[in-house]
C-alpha cells in the first residue's frame, strides 16, 4: 500500500517537475480513479485524531467525536456500518444532539441511507434526544448506515444546524475489517 502511494506521489512529482502542474487531463479515467482512491486512503489513515477517536468536529455548539465503527449487515441484506459518537455541549444552555446536529455518510460521493437494523440490532435513537447540560458529554448510541458498494472508506459529515454553512466538516475514515 505504501509502495503504491510512494510510486504515485513520485509520478506526480515527476509530472510536476516536467511542468508547473501535473497534466490531469492526460491521465486516463482509470488512472485518475486509482489516484483518487490512493489519496483518499492516505487521508483517511491520517484522520485518527487521538487514541480511540477516529475523527472530531468542532461546531458552534458542540464538540463531536467518532469513537467506534463496526461493519455489519442491514435488515435489507446490504453491507452496513454502525457509528458511535460522543457529544459535548459547548453552548450556554441545556441542549440535545438531535436539536442542533445530524450525521450524513457518503460512499463514493453519494449519500448513504440510514438503516433501522444492523446484524439484528435495532437502532437506539434515545440518546440522540437526551438533554445535555453545558460542558457535559454524552455517548450517542449507534447510527446505522447502508454502504451498498464494496469500499474501504466512507465520508462522514456532521451537519451543524446552528451554523450558517450548515456543516461542521467532512472526514474520510477507513472502515474496520
Characterize the structure shown.
The strands form 3 sheets. A 5-stranded antiparallel beta sheet has the order 1-2-3-9-6, with no helix packed on it. It has helices at residues 2-18, 29-45, 97-100; strands at 55-58, 62-73, 79-89, 101-107, 110-111, 114-115, 117-118, 121-122, 137-146, 153-160, 169-174. It has 177 residues and is of the alpha+beta class. The chain contains 3 helices and 11 strands. Strand 7 and strand 8 (121-122) form a beta hairpin.
Main sheet: strands, sense, barrel: 5 strands, antiparallel
Number of separate strands: 11
Overall SS class: alpha+beta
Order of helices and strands: HHEEEHEEEEEEEE
Mind telling me which CATH architecture of the largest domain this is?
Sandwich
Helix content: 10-25%
Number of domains: 2
Average residue-wise pLDDT: 78
How widely separated are the two ends?
Answer: 16 Å
Radius of gyration over C-alpha positions, nearest whole angstrom: 19 Å
- Proportion of beta-strand residues: 35-45%
- What's the level 1 CATH class of the largest domain? Mainly Beta
CATH fold node name of the largest domain? Immunoglobulin-like
Q: Can you count the helices? A: 3
Name the strands of the widest sheet in spatial order: 1-2-3-9-6
Poorly predicted regions: 1-7, 40-50
Shape: globular
Amino acid at each position: 500500500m505504501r509502495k503504491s502511494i510512494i510510486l504515485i506521489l513520485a509520478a506526480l512529482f515527476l509530472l510536476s517537475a516536467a511542468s508547473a502542474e501535473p497534466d490531469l487531463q492526460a491521465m486516463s479515467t482509470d488512472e485518475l480513479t486509482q489516484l483518487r482512491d490512493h489519496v483518499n486512503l492516505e487521508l483517511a489513515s491520517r484522520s485518527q485524531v487521538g487514541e480511540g477517536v477516529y475523527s472530531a468536529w468542532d461546531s458552534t455548539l458542540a464538540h463531536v467525536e467518532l469513537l467506534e465503527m463496526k461493519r455489519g449487515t442491514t435488515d435489507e441484506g446490504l453491507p452496513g456500518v454502525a457509528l458511535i459518537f460522543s457529544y459535548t455541549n459547548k453552548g450556554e444552555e441545556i441542549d440535545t444532539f438531535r436539536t442542533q446536529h445530524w450525521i450524513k455518510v457518503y460512499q463514493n460521493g453519494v449519500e448513504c441511507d440510514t438503516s433501522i437494523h444492523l446484524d439484528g440490532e435495532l437502532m437506539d435513537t434515545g440518546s440522540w434526544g437526551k438533554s445535555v447540560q453545558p460542558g457535559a458529554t454524552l455517548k450517542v448510541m449507534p447510527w446505522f448506515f447502508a454502504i451498498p458498494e464494496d469500499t474501504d472508506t466512507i465520508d462522514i459529515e456532521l451537519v451543524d444546524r446552528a451554523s450558517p454553512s450548515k456543516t461542521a466538516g467532512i472526514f474520510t475514515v477507513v472502515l474496520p475489517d
